[in-house]
Amino acid sequence: MIIDLPSTNSSKINKALVDLREKGGSVTLGRVLTLVIVAEESATEDPIEAANAASFEHPCRVIVVARGVRRASPRMDAQIRVGGDAGASEVVVLRLYGTLVDHGSSVVVPLLLADAPVVAWWPGEAPDVPADDPIGALAERRITDAAAARRPTAQLAKRVASYRPGDTDLSWTRITRWRGLLASTLDQPPHDKVTAASVAGAPDSPSADLLAAWLAVALKCPVKRIKSPAKSGPGLHSVILTRRAGDISLSRPQTITAELKVGSQPERHVALPRRGLRDCLAEELRRLDADDVYAEVLSKGLALVARHAGTEPSRGRASGGHASRGRASGGDASRGRASRGSASGNSKAEATRTGTTATRSRTGTSGSSNGSTPTRRTRTSTESKAATVAPAVAVTDTAAAKANGSAATGAGPGGTPTSENPTTVNATTTTATTRTTRRRRAAKSSSSS
Amino acid sequence: MASTVINPLRDPRDKRLPRIAGPSGIVIFGVTGDLSRKKLMPAIYDLANRGLLPPGFALVGFARRDWANEDFEKVVHDAVLQYARTPFSEEVWRHLAEGFRFVQGAFDNDDAFDNLAATLGNLDRVRGTGGNHAFYFSIPPSAFPVVLQQLKRSGLCDPHAEEWRRVVIEKPFGHDLKSAQELNSLVNDVFPSDSVFRIDHYLGKETVQNLLALRFANELYEPIWNNNYVDHVQITQAEDIGVGGRAGYYDGIGAARDVIQNHLLQLMALTAMEEPVAFNPKDLRREKVKVLSAVQLPKDLSVGAARGQYAGAWQGGTKVLGYLEEEGISPKSTTETYAAVKLLVQTRRWSGVPFYLRTGKRLGKRVSEIAVVFRRAPHQPFSQNDTEELGSNMLVIRVQPDEGVTIRFGSKVPGPAMEVRDVSMDFSYGQSFTEASPEAYERLILDVLLGEPSLFPQDEEVELSWKILDPVEKHWARAGGQPQQYGSGSWGPKCADAMMARDGRAWRRP
Fold first, then answer.
1. Which of A4, A343, B351, B451 is the 20 to 30 Å CA partner of A33?
2. Is B77 marked active-site?
3. A194 chain-B contacts, CB cut-off 8 A
4. In this complex, do B95 and A183 lie within 8 Å of one another by their Cβ atoms?
5. SS in 3 state form for B122-153?
6. For A311-348, how does the pLDDT look when each residue is reduced to its tens digit (9 = 90+)?
């Protein structure tokens, strides 16, 4: 049922809602939250549809603040939808015109459900600081969608700067299943440490950025964000976790089917379609407390990935390497790193790339620290051993070398085939230090094996 | 095994992250049965659709029927289309169906089990199930020994390092204490007890788990959850159907063994138990065992227990047969289709508060609930006349259908007179959390694959339950005679009502 209330105000709407309840039974009392959708007038139907669908899981009152033309006289038109037109929710669409457009919160407040949590959702462009927005300030939970913005990457940067507990973004929700699948692979033995990771996706995919950032925070290892060429499709493409026991690779080449490869185990397929708005919204509404993990990913993870990327060579080549490496790691992971290196062609690309890295980091920051001398010694010893093992450099080693462009101690056991020594320090943070210590340990254990 | 290792990607604060089962497969014995088609297959599909099954999951059917893999796939497909709760997705189905295998054979056929072993080995190689397999016994208990023996002989029950093999068995877990112990030792001979999962699908219901949340997460209920305020507790599980196709199994077993021993005693344990130290399988079980071991039967069972048999009648607009007229039932059968029993819990909290448990077939409607009935207010400032229509306050936990909680209390009837009448305040899962709650079997199958035992009763609980029920069964066997007849569609035999009336109470009409 749809009821139109032209040129109205909040108390008239409230009265209409109470009347409806008396006629149709006490449905509203079971509602668990109020969802406020703030959108431009032209773009309200998709979010409403998603909210209606999600309401089957979370019966709610949906208030849509549709921002209309500003250059008009101030007016509010309302529409109430219940029953079949609104899923298990009741939808109040408020169309605001003129100066009223900027005072959405004033019409929303009287319509909020008693005591129930308020969730604000901006399906399109979001305010710079959602928590300071008048409607955002009413809400316990503020949902934005960086991917829906005109410039997703810039939008994500804004989310970092403006984060307050209770903020969340749908580009983070979209990767839940990816994260679940990756986490479940690490539930299984062997419980080897992941030494490096890379995430490939469209250049402007905030989801790929967030996934990389999450891995960087959780795994405490260098994570490379590879920006695939735009023509290879939107969103996330693949993730590779490198471990000594064999790589884990989860990739979704264009279709909705993902391939999961874990070490030498047979390749497995799983349906992993891009999540729809309904799914994402339902997940968002499931938990209304602040998402601490998301907060950490924003505040720390993105910076970690960016810092790592700072020592990266050109992007195009990196993505090429990713693809070929993914292929190489499929079959022969069991044979270990030496054989992986021997996959032809691949090795050369890797070697060159690492060379570049080394050179770059050296020229980049020449002010060396006193750590350089002992480092050089460690390095040479591992190198000589490694050289007999493989002429090429496995994933770990490139990553290691890059990470260690910073603290410059023990590079990966593979070392670089060029005798360049990236013994410079360009960032001495605590993270870099811990990373180095760990790597040194890894180097030791591996060279003794 | 996995619990000792910390997965860096699992942050306890990360509540979004789903628990996806690791590489594994499930083998269903008796795959052609009703349970398998109506519950297990749809649940497996739903799990896959929710993305909770591992990529490369394998489902192996084992039965006597002469099917090829394709026939099996078709059967599962039909079952999924008909009974699954989530929408059908071709993509999900395709990947799931790649892991379907069917092994044909009888349980006493060595070749069939060697074939099964080879099939599983092949799945490990092709699908990457990693040697992790659950064996689901959807078969009569009489077939357990031979299947267990076969699993042992073919080495299927022996996992290699870091692999697991689990066995899932359905009720009944024996028919008395002795047989339950035998069954336990038989199963434990082949599988260690932490690999044995006894499915009691009631425990997979959201409401049952919510009972713990309701009791222990709130301040509102625990203070009155004792003999100071509670008068008695009624736990009901009623079915509106008759024995139907289960005649062969049901005759000789009866309602008490079929339902009271497992479902009702488990529900009672959850209602009556003390707060566990922590919400983990071990501590939960400890509290349940404590309360089950404190259960006492009334001294005179002839007044503390009642049984009945449904008689033919018009039920809900159809003419139905009485139990003795059902196909496959002896006309002289003394098996009860209705059982009610009064239990006392000898603890400080519950001393003097009887728990009445009842179950039956062909009752008024299909319903399961726990009703906590409170004492009446010690003093009423209103006149007797004003409160004539006021009953006892009641908290009802509806387990199925329409899962939720109802509170009944008195309220003033609008008008100039002071008149108090009972009203209900309802919380319905369907309204506050619609559709989200997964089917009990989904939850339980996932728990089996994850190796999460909290919702499964263990040996000790099963044996304690039999210790409670055995004297009742003995009493009835000694008393002999026919259980009292009750009309189909009614709420049980007269003797059950009399049992309550003697205590000055009455059954609630659910």
1. A4
2. no
3. 8
4. no
5. HHHHHCCCCCCEEEEECCCHHHHHHHHHHHHH
6. 654 444 333 334 433 333 333 333 333 333 333 434 34
